[in-house]
Design brief:
By secondary structure, this protein is α+β, with helices and mostly antiparallel strands. The chain folds into two domains: 118 residues, no CATH class; 91 residues. 24% of the residues lie in helices and 48% in strands. The chain is elongated and about 95 Å long.
């Protein structure tokens, strides 16, 4: 019995040492992976990388990580061409089946899902903010975007009719959707009137409806869904064969 107790104590100590070594190892690898991702994606700050699952060392030995969470606070994505960028806040990605090389020079995930937020001020950059003629004697421009409730965007349109600016912007509820995995589309549910003046629909939609291209997301992930929220549009992203390095 005494020998058995000694054996159990030794096993408990060894198990504790293994857990400590395992956690130290995962912390080192998370830091290395974060540095590699920052360099690969040319990020301004180091992202958060969290490797899930226990034990880590068995995953490491096999060259495949079951699940890795990546968080990037601020990411500048492309806008479909040119030098213009759009800032994405709180980009979070959950990667599954991450195969990596021994020196972390390459890392590819079988699949990825995640979320991100684009502030209304960022999305507003692509809307027509300069006064635009929508009908004889009527000009209009978009002056603000906000949460309209029920997944809608409220588009505030300032209008001038026969030289007189309307006292309050006209509020237009709009639907927001993803097109082709790389574009956010904002489209008015109904065409408004300005100062009681009915305007041809196509003229109004030149102002109220717009699209924002978003590309160059980390690892080639793409837009999946989008919905208006309090602080901006919340985007769901997804991808397969997502390359994080190499």
């Amino acid at each position: 019995m005494r020998a058995l107790r000694i054996l159990l104590v030794v096993l408990a100590i060894l198990a504790g040492i293994f857990v400590i070594i395992d956690r130290i190892a995962v912390n080192i690898v998370e830091g290395e992976a974060a540095d590699r991702l920052r360099a690969t994606e040319n990020l301004a700050t180091t992202p958060d990388v969290s490797i899930k699952g226990f034990p880590f060392l068995t995953q490491f030995a096999g060259g495949t990580l079951d699940e890795v969470e990546v968080g990037i606070e601020d990411y500048e994505a492309g806008t479909g061409g040119g030098a213009e960028k759009i800032r994405i806040a709180g980009l979070r990605a959950d990667l599954h089946g991450v195969d990596f090389s021994s020196d972390f020079g390459s890392a590819v995930a079988d699949s990825a899902t995640g979320t991100a937020t684009i502030a209304y001020g960022e999305l507003l950059k692509t809307a027509k903010s300069a006064p635009t003629r929508v009908a004889p004697g009527v000009t209009a421009r978009v002056v603000g975007l906000s949460d309209g409730g029920n997944g809608k965007i409220k588009v505030a349109v300032e209008a001038t009719v026969l030289g007189t600016k309307l006292p309050q912007p006209v509020a237009v509820l709009s639907s927001v959707t993803v097109v082709d995995g790389d574009t956010v589309r904002v489209k008015a549910d109904a065409v408004p009137e300005f100062g009681g003046v009915r305007i041809v629909e196509s003229g109004v939609r030149d102002i109220t409806d717009f699209e924002q291209g978003i590309d160059g997301l980390p690892g080639g992930i793409r837009l999946d869904k989008v919905e208006a929220a309090r602080d901006g549009v919340e985007i769901t992203v997804k991808g397969s064969d997502v390359r994080l390095a190499g």
